[in-house]
Design brief:
The chain is built from 5 helices and 7 strands; from the N terminus they run αββββαβααββα. The chain is of the alpha+beta class. It has one domain. The longest helix has 11 residues. The mean pLDDT is about 90.
Length: about 130
């Protein structure tokens, strides 16, 4: 069995780490990484947002068999089901796709094309597992 997203994140991202959004115009902070998931801090108020490991592991299943997928971050609660944002909003009802795209790119799970619109695909290692 291949590595898990949890293992990839734990080995490549540290609590307190500050990461840029895909456009580089904003940053977010990795607050906590524990056995239940990851908490990220967004915006000037450093609003905590929690992602459980089931949600993050599910990104791999969602991306399997797809080529480039739009990150699609937007404030519409339903999200677009054909984007990473649409998948994530099934788990966390807020705009988080830009942050998760960067987190999972840092972990080596996703490749990020930060052009406009930003898009992601499974990295070569993850697309064959």
């Amino acid at each position: 069995m291949g590595a898990s997203v949890q293992q990839a994140v734990r080995s490549s991202v540290r609590p307190g780490e500050r990461l840029p959004t895909p456009t580089g115009t904003a940053h977010f902070v990795v607050d906590e990484i524990d056995s239940t998931g990851v908490t990220l801090l967004f915006g000037p108020k450093r609003t905590p947002t929690f992602f459980d490991w089931d949600c993050l592991e599910g990104v791999v299943g969602y991306m399997k068999g797809r080529d480039w997928v739009a990150v699609g971050a937007n404030r519409v609660l339903a999200g677009n089901p054909d984007t990473l944002d649409g998948y994530l909003k099934q788990h966390v009802p807020r705009q988080t796709a830009n942050y998760i795209a960067v987190l999972l790119t840092q972990a080596g799970v996703l490749d990020l094309d930060d052009g406009r619109p930003a898009r992601v695909r499974l990295s070569a290692e993850w697309s064959t597992t």
